[in-house]
Amino acid sequence: MPCRFLFLFLLLGACRLPAQEASRVEAAQDDNNLIWKIANFAIFAGGIGYAIAKLAPSFFNARSADIQNAIRESTGLKMNADLRYSEIDRKMANLSSEVGKLRAEAQGEMEREHARMIAQTQEEIAYIQRSTAAEIEALRGEGVDKLRVHATQQALALAEARLRARFASTDQTDLFNDFVRLVERGKN
């Protein structure tokens, strides 16, 4: 193909003949210029055609491969999106049953928590009652002990007061005689 263009170029160059007349020379030059313009355009068009013939298939094949890859990727993305969409639709269709299920679970959980709190409160009440009863019993025992000590102290104070009164009112000999009698009784 490049040889044809070269041949055409040489042929056009060889066809140039000197003109004898000025007007003919001008007309020939115009024709010559036209021939050169046509030859120049033909060479340019041939070069463009050659470049397009050589480069266009690989460019368009690469572009076609890119487009095919993009189509495959978009098809995969579309399928993935459709799958997600159908999953969302399925979930939305089951949403009311899911909400009911969650409500039932929450109600059950609240009832279990309520029962647990009641049981815990009853245990705390029983513990408080046991603690109070034990404290009352301890305080009662302490009060009884204090009362016994006080009663004993009062009895001793009363006995002491009576003995002092008796010793003050009676003679020492009477006491000595009472002591001797008590000792004699103890021997028997």
Name a few traits of the molecule.
single chain; 188 residues; 4 helices
Notes on the structure:
With 188 residues, this protein is mainly alpha-helical. The protein has 2 domains: 76 residues; 64 residues. The protein is built from 4 helices and no strands. About 3% of the residues have low confidence.
Give a quick rundown of the structure:
The protein is mostly helical and 188 residues long.
Question: In terms of topology, how is this protein built?
Answer:
Elements: H1 2-14, H2 22-93, H3 95-169, H4 172-187
Helix pairs in contact: 1-2
What is the CA-CA span between the terminal residues?
Answer: 169 Å
Strand proportion, as a percent range, falls in under 5%
Low-confidence stretches: 17-21
Structural class designation: mainly alpha
Q: How much is the average pLDDT? A: 81
Give the total of beta strands: 0
Number of helices: 4
Q: How many structural units, i.e. domains? A: 2
Biggest sheet architecture: none
